[in-house]
Each structure stands twice: as structure tokens, then as C-alpha cells.
What we know:
The chain is an all-beta fold. The protein has a single domain (8-224), classed as Porin, CATH 2.40.160. The protein has strands at 8-15, 43-52, 57-69, 72-83, 87-102, 110-120, 123-135, 141-150, 156-168, 172-181, 187-196, 201-210, 215-224. Strands 1-2-3-4-5-6-7-8-9-10-11-12-13 form a 13-stranded mixed β-barrel. Strand 4 and strand 5 (87-102) form a beta hairpin. Mean pLDDT is 85; it is low at 1-16.
Amino acid sequence: MRVPLGVLALGLAVVGVASDHNNIDKERPLRFDDAYSIALGGLEFQNGLRYDPARRSWFGRSELQIGFARNRDLSIGWEPFSAPGQGLRSGALELSYFETLRRETEGFPAIGYRAEVSSTGGQPEARLRGIATRLLSGAAKVHLNLDLGLNSRRRGTFGGIVGFSLPQGYHTTYLGEIGWASGEKGGFVGVGMRRQMSTRGVLDLGVEASTVGRFRFTVGFSLGL
């Protein structure tokens, strides 16, 4: 059995408003979302690079995110990759719609969802993610993500993540997650942090481990203009 040493990801986001370390989106740096969209009129451009030593492959990601309406945003993403013997390939194209259905009130969590469609080599896939965010004691929050999907072989996929976020002061948010996804061996756990480097810049750091000994390391940076 091949056990990877990890996955290295490097991300850069350019946004139309100042970045906030307490704003949680998937892959920044863990897999879960909170239930809130970006602000109306917000514009975010994300670029990332990930290396998987087990596959000896490089994966890129570019994503444009637009807050086109109150509590709603659209994202268009592209994920090229390079693998041994294959050279540079175009990878997946992705379209994502996010909506916050309701904000948190006393006794009821914030609710949102993300709907995605993607295509890799002409093979379409779709996923729907339901999201609930609830404030715990102090500033700590818990985030429940439930995923349903349809892969290119027309088979259903599903998974779930329980995420946690804990802001500390004005500069840092600590993150944790526990999750499972069909199509992957075992579950996974992750820890990370988002650090406010300036009024416009946020540094992401994260590490994830699966129950079968796979690891993934993430580093990213968000920059607001």
C-alpha cells in the first residue's frame, strides 16, 4: 500500500473587500463551509497550487467568486493538473452557486447551501451541500456540512463534515473538522488556522489526516484590494 507523505497546496485570493480571518470557505484551509455567502458586490479571485507526492502530480485551482445579490454568490473555477506521463491537462471546470437561506437567530442556526456542477474531460458531476452554522459558547461556532452528489458514472455520492471555528482576538481563527466521504477510504480529521496578517491579508495553514494514513498539508493566502 502506498502511503502519501502529504499534499501541498498554495492559494492566493484577490478580493474586492478586505479579507476576514473568520470567513470560512471550503479549501481555506479545510474542506468545510460556513453558512454565509460573501458580501453583496464582493469579488474574489483565488489561485492555488497543490502537490500530491503519492501521485507525483500537481494540481492548480483558479476561481472567480462574485457576490451578485444579497446572501448569494456565484463561483467559476478551473482545476488544471500535471501528472507523470500526461503532461499538463485542462482538468475540471466548475460552476458553483451559494445561498444563505437564513441568518442565525436565537434558538436557530444559520442555514445555507452550495450547488455545484463540474466537468472533467466531458464527464459531468454534480453536488449539493447543505450547511448549518451555530454559535456555541463565546465566539466558537460549529458547522455541519452534508453532501449529496452524482458522479460521472451516474452513481450517487454522499458525505458529511462537522467543522469547528474559534476566533481568538482580532487576528486568528482556529479550525477543526471531522468528516467522511463516499469514494474515499476511511474518514478524515483536520486542524488549521486563519491568521490576519494585515487589514487586507489572511494566511491559511491546515493539515488533514485520514484513518488510512494519508496526509494533506495546505498553505494559502487571501488578499483584499
